[in-house]
Amino acid sequence: ERIACILMNNIQQLRVQLEKMFESMGGDKLEEDAANILKELQQNLNSALDDLASQFAISLEPRITQSVRELGDMLLSIKGGSGTLAAGNLAAQRNAVAVEADEVLRPLMDLLDGSLTLYAQSCEKTVLKRLLKELWKIVMRILEKTIVLPPMTDKTMMFKHLTDNAKNLASNAKIEDMGRLFKSHMAGKQDVKSALSGVMDISKEVEKNLSPKQCAVLDVALDTIKQYFHAGGNGLKKT
Fold this sequence. Notes:
Layout: H1 2-24, H2 32-59, H3 61-76, H4 90-122, H5 125-148, H6 160-172, H7 192-196, H8 202-205, H9 212-230
Helix pairs in contact: 1-2, 2-5, 3-4, 3-5, 4-9, 5-6
């Protein structure tokens, strides 16, 4: 993983040096033919960096898929909750749900924490923001396919709004200054809430497949994922 980060860092450095060359040669005052050549080279490097970031993120899919499957297995193993959460001590039940949500999320969050910490240490800010964008898309897609869709009897219509929202985020994600993710100085410009609005209603959709308690745990877990990418206001924007 460090080698991949080094390769992407090198491409980013080439982009920076090319931009400096462009400015030193006159910038916008440069002759059109020469300017076009430099701009084309910059575009090629930009595309290469995007492609490499995507390929690297895709290489992590098996690990993410496995962690999400473990999440699903742990969710289904939760017992109780045949009634509603309104009965009994509501505060105690909410606390119990939060604890169980943290537990089912552990495989996924352990993977994300370990990977993103390494990337934050090894990658330049511009490289990290691309990796984070690709990682976000992959996590959303695998959660959708592994946790959300399998229990559904009508796979073509259930969660269509979720699929549309997630794909919209995946195609339009623009994250700024993500290199400060783990240093409390990160700034982001992407709407997490829109992509997760469908997911947050999951307990209503899967009520016939999961117990009310399992639905509540999954709802809290999904909110935790949203908060993770939001990073206390320093990450992806919620609104």
